TrEMBL record:
Protein name: Outer membrane beta-barrel protein
Domain Outer membrane protein beta-barrel: 7-218
InterPro entries with a match to the protein in the record: Beta-barrel_OMP, OMP/PagP_B-barrel
Lineage: Bacteria, Pseudomonadati, Pseudomonadota, Gammaproteobacteria, Lysobacterales
SUPFAM superfamilies on file: OMPA-like
Pfam families to which the protein is assigned, alphabetical: OMP_b-brl
Entry keyword set: Signal
Record has Chloroplast as a keyword: no
Signal peptide (residue range): 1-21
Transmembrane segments: none
C-alpha cells in the first residue's frame, strides 16, 4: 500500500464512518476547466494547456463525513507542439500532439462546513487512453510559404496503452439547495510512462486540471 497512501487513507476514512452512516443519495457531477500537461517526452512543447471536461456519477452515504463511490469519464484535452522549419528546398510545418481521455473509478469524501460550505477529496484508478499524433506539411519553393495544399503531407497517429494508473483530487464548494452543489476542484491524473526503453525507466507523465463543477443529488 505504500504506493497509494492517499487511497488507503481515503477508503479507511470511508469505512470508519460506516457505523454512523445514514441513508444516502445518488449523485451526478459535471465539471469543465483547464488542463495542464507534464509529459516526459514533451518538456519543450509550446502549448501544454487545453480545455478539460469530466462527468461522474455515484452514491454518497451520509454521516459525520459523507462518503461514497464514483464512476466517471474525463477528457483532458491535448498538448500540442507546433513549429516551422526552413530549409534550402522550402519549409516544413510540423505539429505534434498528445491527447488523453479515459474512465475512472474511485472513492469520494465530502465534509460540510457549517450550513452551506463543504470540502471534498476523491481518488482512485484511472484508465487513460493516450493518442499521439504527428503531421508534417512540406512546402516547396516557388510560391507562398503557407500555400495550401502543401507539396507533400505526412500524418501519423498511435494509441499508447500505459495500463491502469491513479488519480486524486481536492475541492471546495457551496450547497445552493439540498440537491444542488457547485465547486472548484483540483485533480491530478497519472498517465504512466508513454514509452519504454530496455534498461531505462522513463519518468511518469501526468495531467493536472483546475475546474468548476455542478453536482446534483437525488
Amino acid at each position: 500500500m505504500g504506493k497509494y497512501p492517499f487511497f488507503a487513507a481515503l477508503f479507511a476514512a470511508m469505512v470508519s464512518t460506516s457505523a454512523v452512516a445514514q441513508a444516502g443519495q445518488f449523485f451526478m457531477d459535471g465539471g469543465i476547466g483547464r488542463s495542464s500537461y507534464s509529459l516526459s517526452t514533451g518538456q519543450y512543447d509550446n502549448d501544454k494547456t487545453d480545455w478539460a471536461t469530466s462527468i461522474r456519477a455515484g452514491y454518497m452515504w451520509h454521516g459525520f463525513v459523507d462518503y461514497g463511490v464514483e464512476l466517471g469519464y474525463a477528457d483532458l484535452g491535448q498538448e500540442v507542439d507546433r513549429n516551422v522549419q526552413f530549409h534550402n528546398s522550402g519549409s516544413d510545418y510540423v505539429r505534434y500532439s498528445t491527447a488523453t481521455n479515459g474512465w475512472l473509478f474511485g472513492g469520494r469524501l465530502e465534509y460540510l462546513l457549517g450550513q452551506s460550505w463543504f470540502v471534498m477529496a476523491r481518488g482512485g484508478w484511472f484508465r487513460p487512453r493516450v493518442i499521439e499524433e504527428s503531421a508534417d506539411w512540406t512546402l516547396t519553393r516557388g510560391g507562398p510559404v503557407h500555400t495550401v495544399p502543401a507539396s507533400s503531407y505526412f500524418h501519423y497517429q498511435d494509441s499508447v496503452d500505459t495500463g491502469t494508473q491513479t488519480y486524486f483530487g481536492v475541492g471546495v464548494g457551496y450547497c445552493l439547495t439540498p440537491d444542488w452543489r457547485v465547486g472548484l476542484n483540483y485533480d491530478y491524473y497519472d498517465l504512466g510512462s508513454l514509452f519504454s526503453i530496455p534498461g531505462y525507466r522513463q519518468p511518469s507523465s501526468h495531467v493536472k486540471t483546475y475546474s468548476a463543477s455542478v453536482q446534483f443529488r437525488f
